[in-house]
Amino acid sequence: MSAKKARTKKSASGGADAPERVTMRIEGRDHEFPIVTGTEGEKGIDISSLRASTGYITLDDGLSNTGSCESTITFIDGERGVLRYRGIPIEELAEHSTFTETAYLVMYGELPNRRELEIFSTRLNASSLIHEDMRHFFTGLPGHAHPMAILTTVVASLSAFYPVSDDMGKDDEDRIVANLISQVRTLAACSYKMSIGEPFVYPSYKRKFVENFLYMMFASPVKNYQLDPDIVRAIDLFLLLHADHEQNCSTSTVRMAGSSLANVYAVVSAGISALWGRLHGGANQAVIEMLEGIQASGISAAGYVARLKADKERLMGFGHRVYKAYDPRAKILREYCHRILKKPGMDAPAFDIALELEEIALRDDYFLSRNLYPNVDFYSGLILKAVGFPVNMFTVLFAIGRMPGWLAQWREMRHSERSKIARPRQIYKGPALRHFVPKDER
Ligand code: CMC
């Protein structure tokens, strides 16, 4: 049995560089597969007919070489450190936009005009209250529960409050979008309040998205919360930078769970669960724990990196499946750290350790040869910590930021003509056929 390397055929015009099809020789027979080209020239081989025509499947651990869909939402060029939402560079959005406006862009494909933005913001505000019966879910969970455990539970339980029909129209989708983008923030604040034994603070019509969230988090009946515009901007920027990131682990989970047409609230809860892991969204918590561990132990940054390499451990907040250059979001957050951590009362000694670690790693052949650069999680936790978020809320903030992306991807999947239930195959490596042995003969 032989499978020959794929050959490519030039386009019919003969002039273009890009081939239109590839030919794969398997067991002496040629099979042709079309090439798909993205807006920015990225190439894929459409193998949807592979098994039917050859009997073969592909094997791709971690799906690193597999395009699971066509998408119009986010573009990443990992080699050049480029990230764009709906074509607009992340740097431009970070400078000129807000989370709410960017959420609209990610969701609906265009920047909103004034009126559209006003309607969207009003919708988010109007959707921010959670059903009073949801309080029971919170009180039923242990006070020491990790806020991500609470968030997955309560977001999934929204499916009990909002049954969703299969033939939902645009208005239903818009309502779901507003509910989830807005309520995940209320639920996050409630989970924090519960964990510290304080009463929930209700959202208010008078405040904007991030202001409302900070108020629900940090105000209490005996303590008014003074909003600091720099802190509001820092959190807004954090959320904006996390709004989407194409087919990452949690987004792929959302698409996969959603492909079965399950209730969207349960689907998003699956995405939140996937995000929790320390190799994904949980890395922002792991980075701060690492930096504080270094600080507490007194080990030098150089000593820590040497030990980590010897033990084959990972430098948290470094490396990325797609970026083989500096993550553009990390670049923006690094600069912002310089700005915000200089404010009085925002002392962050861990920032100096982070800068030192980065400098060492970016001179070290181990990291350079593997293209390991800081990712979004390396600096984000420093900002969250400095503005007063407890470490175990970091991944929850990631989830609030990622909500527009999950929903946009879910919606895109629902409307794609190519969509079908996600059902990968496998290469079975277990025992060959054998027969049942009665208990006494084992
Ligand atoms: N520190 C040290 N070595 C690393 C690191 C790291 N952070 N990341 C990868 N490597 C090494 C790895 O040991 C392997 O070395 P070798 O070739 O000698 O076996 C090589 O680099 C390739 O690693 P990989 O595991 O094949 O790479 P991957 O694309 O599967 O993993 C990653 C990507 C993000 C899971 C990984 O880089 C990692 O674990 N980073 C630390 C956790 C982290 O910061 N996660 C946040 C990711 S960004 C935000 C998000 O997606 O949520």
For this entry, give a set of tags.
single chain, 442 residues, alpha+beta, 18 helices, 49% helix, disordered N terminus
What does this structure look like?
With 442 residues, this protein is an alpha+beta fold. It is built from 18 helices and 7 strands. Strands 1-2-3-4 form a 4-stranded antiparallel beta sheet. Strand 1 and strand 2 form a beta hairpin. 38% of the residues are buried. The structure holds carboxymethyl coenzyme *A (CMC). Residues 62, 248, 279-281, 283, 314-321, 370, 372, 375-377 line the site of carboxymethyl coenzyme *A.
Structural class: alpha+beta
- Count of beta strands: 7
- On the 0-100 scale, what is the average pLDDT? 91
Task: Output the helix-strand order.
Answer: EEEEHEEEHHHHHHHHHHHHHHHHH
Reconstruct the topology from this structure.
Layout: E1 3-10, E2 19-26, E3 29-37, E4 43-45, H1 50-54, E5 74-77, E6 82-85, E7 88-89, H2 90-96, H3 99-108, H4 114-126, H5 135-139, H6 147-161, H7 170-195, H8 209-218, H9 229-241, H10 249-258, H11 264-276, H12 283-297, H13 301-310, H14 328-340, H15 349-361, H16 365-369, H17 376-386, H18 394-415
Helix pairs in contact: 3-9, 3-18, 4-7, 6-7, 6-11, 7-8, 7-18, 9-14, 9-17, 9-18, 10-11, 10-18, 11-18, 12-15, 12-17, 14-17
How would you summarize what this structure contains?
By secondary structure, this protein is an alpha+beta fold. The chain is built from 18 helices and 7 strands.
